[in-house]
Amino acid sequence: MRLRKVLIKLTILGTAVGLFIFGGFGEFTKSQTANSRGQVKYLIGVSHPNLNGPWQIQMNQEIKNEISHHKDTRVLFTDAAQNDEQQVQDIHTLMSYGIDLLIVSVDNAVKLTPVITEVYKKIPVIVLGRGVKGYDYTLYIGSDNQLNGKMAAKEAINLLGNKSGQIIEVKGNEESLQAEERSKGFHETIQKESNHTIIRSINGNWLKDKAEDDLKTILKSGERPNLIYAHNDAMALGAYNALKQSRLEGVKIIGSDGLNEENGGLQLVKKGLIDATYITPTGGTTAVQYAMDILHKVPGLPKKIILRDHEVTLSNVDFYLKDRESESISIIQNKHKRLKLGFAQVGSESEWRLANTDSIISAAKEAGIELILKNADYNQQKQIEIIRDFIKQDVDVIAFSPKTEDGWEEVLKEAKNAGIPVILSDREINVDDQTLWTSFIGSDFVEEGRRAGKWLVSESESTNKAVHIIEIEGTANSAPAVDRKQGFNEIIQQNPKFQLLKSYSGDFTVGKGKKLMKEALKTYGSKIDVVYAHNDDMALGAIQAVEDYGLKPGVDIKIISIDATIKAFNSLRLAKMNFTVECNPLLGPQLMKAVKDLKNGIEIPQRIITAEETFDQKQAKKEFNERAY
Ligand code: AHR
Q1: Ligand 1 touching residue 238 (CB < 6 A)
Q2: CB 78 within 8 Å of CB 46
Q3: Are the C-beta atoms of 447 and 611 separated by less than 8 Å?
Q4: How many A from CA of 501 to the centre of ligand 1?
């Protein structure tokens, strides 16, 4: 609260922005600019959209607390007071102070994305809590908002029972991605899984008073909802007040944020004023920790950290209201002298996989973790048996790269019952119960597909003629195959000149890539303009088939691939391949960090998404000698 007062005071005193400075020691004055910083080594700028809400205040407090551990670092905070133009201006002001890194949380993704893209060209940017459009930032930290909306919908269905109910949604803000995603998750689930109707969606701008006033007007007009779903607890409290003043009883209320303070979600649930909330971590502490890693140039940092939200109702609110200290009890008991990790590797199908296995072995050694690594030889049943064996051995943590998305419920329930946390490495799975796994560490495969598609779009810009494509997919029903197809299609479907001749189902191996391309050439011959292979190995196989057919890969038929291994770099260098999208196999260090965090009782993110690049022929030629795998 003190923080807000300082900000307001500064604003009243006539500063153009609510800007103030916080650091490990002494005061940092405006004259200490980038050129004369004294003992200050790093200057971090933090731009808030609005420091009026409790969640944003908590985020700021976390940043302040964490930065106090770094004596050589100062932070400049700005508060745009819910004015988008002001926030753009704030960011320019922070840049003029010579900040080394920007942490930014936005309400309006549309208006703020361009300035953030500009800043990202100059310094690292962490987008915190509320997202921007696209990928022009160093790191995103925040919740999975679509999942948050989905969880709220499931709870709404639970609260309303079988009868068909009427729901009013109070959204955060028209142009906030966070609100858009929550709304999407909520609407989709209500439509798919219930007979309830969302009779109205209004914008509460994240503010209690606006939600309260607008709902009062709606209730006055005679509308009678059975449930109000508000995108945050402040607006949920506004909904409670509106209902009370309208003397309406029995209407269920769901909020989100889950702060433990006066009028915070936890206390509202405890007092029975609202029925459910979602603890959505602000990520303030995590942001500073990663900011320091970025400033210290720690290699292998991720691109996205997706934090885990927790559902809170009357049945479990006491657990979350308990002293926070008790939450940091390790979920791993002291079973062994050294931490024991069982890793069920899916196979040795590709160069990528070999690099991935090496990374896990060397990172475990470095971290002092006892690793039992077993290979399932690309056989799902064998992989399940390996996991069962780890449960029998009572390892501390199990990690695995699931061959396909389905078929894991049973064995993961066994692991859960045995109290062994499971980390998904590289590939995700389809299970209803999200508590069957603790964390996912890997790539955004949909984005990889999009990047492949975007390259093709820009490469084909000068032609209006049809572009005929052969797609060689990865293993059927595996996460990379499903998602890479989706991402690629999303882009090429925007222009009818891109024509998919056929999609073949492959298995990520050179042999299958060659075989399938041979078949494709037999059917379509030189009509084929482009091959999109879901990994480098299959692309390399396809290149061989094209050469055998007497055509020039990379020239007569363009080759696009995913992984960016050294063998693909070599093909790019020789102009036989045209483009590869990086899929980072070096997941070992992040995995070992997660295992250690679990041991130390630190809640690990729900998803850790790796940072990745793309490479054309020119870039591959330049970086060939540095490529490690
Ligand atoms: O799951 C990652 C994929 O699996 C890689 O892209 C592919 O090469 C591997 O076999």
Answers
A1: no
A2: yes
A3: no
A4: 24
